[in-house]
Amino acid sequence: MSRSGRSGGSIGFRIAAAGALALLLGFLVVPMIALFAETGPRELVSSLGERGAAEALWLSLRTSLAALLLIVAVGTPAAWFVARRDFRGRALVLTLIELPLVLPPAAAGIALLAAFGPNGIAGGAIESLGIELVLQTAGVVVALTFVAAPFFVRGAIAAFEAIDANLLDASRTLGAGEGRTFLRVGIPGARAGLASGAALAWGRALGEFGATLMFAGSLEGRTQTAPLAIFEFLARDFDAALALSAVLLVVSAFILLAVKLVGGRPEVVDADR
Amino acid sequence: MLTAELVKARGAFRLDAGLEVGRGERLALVGPSGSGKSTLLRLIAGLLDPDAGLISLGGEPWFDSGAGKNVPAERRGIGFVFQDYALFPHMAAWRNVAYGLPGRRRSRRAAAVAGLGRLGLADRSEAVPADLSGGERQRVALARALAAEPRLLLLDEPLSALDARTRAAAARELASVLDTAAVPAIVVTHDFAEAAQLADSVAVLDRGRIIQRGSPAELAAAPASGLVADLAGATVLDGVAAPGEGGLTRVELTGGGTIYSTEEASGPVSAGVFPWEIAIDPAGAPAPAGSALNRLAGEVTGVTEFGNRARIGLAVPQPLAAEVTAASIERLGLGPGTPVIASWKATATRLAPR
């Protein structure tokens, strides 16, 4: 007996609340339907043949996956450190990790320029390593990593915090140091949270626009990702913009579905309790 | 031999305890919840750091606050059985047991399955914890803790996650596994009967301090406080049971004496009786016309008063504890050496196979 079994309350309010839900759903869903109503499947495929569209999509996939790889490789042990330790300044660290979530992407792009651009505070050091970021594909990866990392790291911290501390203690009493405990008990125990965090970060990276434009520019074939290409097509070829948007919507829907499937499955860790 | 002298403060709670566990000895830590039993166990394991103190095993220091020495838990070579067993949920039973084993996969697997086999779980080695019963999980946890031949076994309420029906059998089995393993062990429990069954000696912890340590019979006969008296419920007499007259079970006690029980058993048994079920009469008193069937002549070994009651330690000749009012001590003139008769009903005699 839960939601539906509740009795009493005023009918009037229930109708108003249901109306609000209908309004919200309509507002959210209509533009997505419109995306497909405007482009038939055939136009969609042919528009992708448009010069630049397929290229932009391919660049988006490559750069977002490269950013995801970086985020997961560095973010997973970092999240473990934050989750399993109580240290001075922990609250500050958590705030810093979450800051890019609320930072306007355009501001993030300017901040990246100020830090890693040719005249940025770390620009010289990066240049001396022989790495070029601005107006380069590598710069896209940097922008995507900056914006998407918090989505993964936040989820990873929560997932590691949720692991039964006794499991980690058990691992230690069985002779495993922290590294082995992290690999053999920590990661398997947090895998659902890690996977959904990775999917969210990937989704965010795929849609990134502002920071990429500011930091890496919109050079066709080099830094023009799918969202940037959509913006450029808007002026000269609305159908191509529509088609590319539809493809991004499908890809994003798949990612969301994957998150639901992974996150909806009861975690094996909990099943034992 | 394990030696520990530890201080650990947590808010208003302060643990300040010292203990020694000899080679092959088994110690039970008993006490009410919140007395610091599990904390003490975790400090010894290295899962918590003491504020100050010393821990050493066989002369090798594990922790020494003075010398700044602290061997991490993973290098202490202990086996730990957690209260909820803490089995790795994503691993099959054999992988749980093999987790702490060195060597190649094949030999680790063979050793793990053999370890499970010793606990009667050879055919469950592929099952994951979620598919095991409570009793099976407890045995997997035990097999895992014993697999790497630990130098010290620590068990935190190893039976409390089991239901009452499987618990008695699991306790007997655990005792025999511990006998076979012959490794020094500390068992935390809040159940004195369980402590008596699993350990040679019992230390009672109250509000962070060990208030008494001794054999179960010593604690029952001469409790240091009302708390110990309440914890140390039944005392236990060893004997051999056989069907007796009137449908009762007749128990010939080791060292002499015969008692009766309404419970059925045969072979070697432990006969438990609560001190407050036992009546004390002066030696030579005529057999009363009452319903107490069990009468054993013996001698008072000690009297411990707390409040308005007193524990009488008896030798009948096995040690037995009786509880009487403080007034009876004076009326009967009880003191060490006084010959008395202890009597109780057959219905108050609980039998457990040994």
- Report the CATH topology name of chain A: MetI-like fold
- Helical coverage of chain A, percent range: over 70%
Q: Which structural class fits the helix and strand makeup of chain A?
A: mainly alpha
Largest interface (C-beta under 8 Å): A-B, 21 and 28 residues
Quaternary arrangement of the chains shown?
A: heterodimer
Order of helices and strands of chain B: EEEHEEEEHHHEHEHEEHHEEEEEEEEHEE
What does this structure look like?
The complex is a heterodimer of chains A (273) and B (354). With 273 residues, chain A is mainly alpha-helical. Chain A has a single domain, classed as MetI-like (MetI-like fold). Chain A has helices at 11-38, 41-48, 53-84, 90-102, 105-116, 123-128, 137-161, 165-173, 178-189, 191-207, 210-216, 226-236, 238-264, 268-271. The longest helix of chain A is centred in the first third of the chain and has 32 residues, at 53-84. The relative contact order of chain A is 0.14. Chain B is of the alpha+beta class. Chain B folds into 2 domains: 2-214, 3-Layer(aba) Sandwich (Rossmann fold); 235-353, Beta Barrel (OB fold (Dihydrolipoamide Acetyltransferase, E2P)). Chain B is 25% helix and 36% strand. Chain B has 9 helices and 21 strands. Chain B has helices spanning 37-45, 93-98, 105-118, 134-147, 164-181, 192-198, 216-221, 226-231, 326-332, and strands spanning 2-10, 13-21, 26-30, 52-57, 60-64, 69-70, 78-81, 152-156, 185-189, 201-206, 209-214, 235-243, 249-253, 258-261, 267-273, 279-282, 294-306, 309-315, 319-325, 339-344, 350-353. In chain B, the strands form 4 sheets. Chain B has a 6-stranded mixed sheet, sandwiched between helices. Chain B has a 5-stranded antiparallel sheet with strand order 2-1-4-5-6, with helices on one face. In chain B, strand 1 (2-10) and strand 2 form a beta hairpin. In chain B, helix 3 (105-118) packs across helix 4 (134-147). The chains are: A mainly alpha (273), B alpha+beta (354). The interface between A and B is medium-sized, with 21 and 28 residues.
